[in-house]
Amino acid sequence: MNIVLITAHDAGHYVQPYGIPVDTPHMMRFAREGVLFRKAFCAAPTCGPSRAAMLTGQTPHEMGMYGLPGGDGWKIDDYGKHLVNQLNRHDYETVLCGVQHEASHAEHFPEIAYQRVLEREAPAREQDGEWYPESINKLEAFLATRDDPRPFFLSVGIDEPHRDNLPRPELNLHGKSDRFTKTRFYDPEKLDWRYTAPLPWLPDLPDIRKDVESYFEGVRILDEYVGRILYALKHNGLEGNTLVILTSDHGVEFSGGKKTLSDAGTRVMLMMRGPSGSPLRGGNVIEGQVQHLDLYPTLCELLHLEVPHPLSGKSLLPLVTGQTQQLHEAVFAEQTYHGGPEPLRSVRTERYKYIRRVGDTGNRMRHDGPTATLLETLGWYDRPLGHEELFDLVLDPMEACNRAADPAYADIKAELSARLEQWMAETGDPFPSGVFPPIPATVNEPS
Description:
By secondary structure, the protein is α/β, with parallel strands linked by helices. It is 26% helix and 17% strand. The radius of gyration is 21 Å and the shape is globular.
C-alpha cells in the first residue's frame, strides 16, 4: 500500500469540509470519498514540535523537539523514531516534496533519510525542504514516471496558507505577512471582503475581515494543489492502492490561533481516504476526539509493522470500524518555545479544557500579519490571564470566560488538574519544575 501524507501549513480546520464558508471543491470531494475526523488535534500549536510529534508518535517533550529546528537548533532526540526512517527499514521508497519541519533545512536534514527529495532534483533549488511553484510539477512527474516496484511513502508539505513571511521577489512576494501564500502573487486589496465574516473569536472590524478573506484565498490555492495531487494519483492508476492523509500542522496564523492552546491553535483538519475496499472510505464522519499522535500507530496497524518505540497515541481503526465511539477521554497539548519561551500545557475532554501556564500573562507570543498588528494596539497581548484557565466548551465554545476561580467548577478543575499532573509525570515533562532545556542555539553563545 502506498501512502501520501499531505500537510498544509497553518490551515487548522478552517476549510470547507468543516463548515467554513470558503469554496474548496477538491477537499470537499475528498472528504466525501474518505473519512473525516471532526475533532482532531495536534500535539503542539507550532510547526516543528507539531510535525515532529506526528511523525515520531511521541509528544514534543518526550522526543526533545521543544521548539523550532534550524536557527533555534531543536532536534528529535533519536531520528530513528521518525516514520521515514522506520519505513526505509521496511523497503518503502520514501520521498519528500515540499516542506519538512522536523530538522534543519540548512544541513539538508540528513537525519531524515528520504531516498528522494524532489526539490534537490533538476532544476534543483538551493534550499530544499520548502514548497516552490514548481514543486507540484515535480510531484506530478514523480507519480507519472516512477517504475520502482516498491510501495512509496510520499510526504507533501504545502506552504499554503502560511503567510508570506519570506520575501520571494521573483514572485512579487515581499514577505510582509499580509498574504496567505508563499508561492503565488495576489493583491489582498483586490479581494472582495465586504461579505466576509471575521473568524469566530475575532472582532468584526474591516481590516480583520480583509485579512480573513486573504486567508481564504490561500486556502483556495491549497485546494488547487490538493486537487492536482488527487488527479495525478487517479490518472496514473495509483488511487486504488494508496492511502491519502490530509491534515494541517496546527491552527491558523491569527491572534488567538497558532501559538496558543485554544482550539483555534490546536484543532486541525484530518481526513483520510484508504485504498479500494478499505474502511477508510465512504464519506464517514467521526465525532470522537483524535490526535496527530494517533497516525503513527494507525499506520503500524495498517502496514502490519512492529511498534518500534513507545507511542503516545492509539490506532484510529477501532474508531473508524465502529468498535468504539471514543478513543480518548482526554487529549493533551503543549507549548514551550517558538523563538522565545511561553510554556503552556493543556488537557481537553469533550466538554472542558484546562490550561496551565508558567507565567501569569498571555498571550506573549506575537503573531504575523495585519490582524495581530491591529489587535496589539487594542491590548490583545500580555494580558493578566493567570496561571490557570478552565473553559466550559459547551457553554463557552470560544474559550472567552475563564472558570478557574469559579467555585461551581472547583471539582472539575481539580479533576482536570490531577489528570494533567499525571500525564506530565508519566511522560517526563519538565513543566512542573518550570525549568526547561535551553534553546540549543544559545548554549554555545558567549555570555
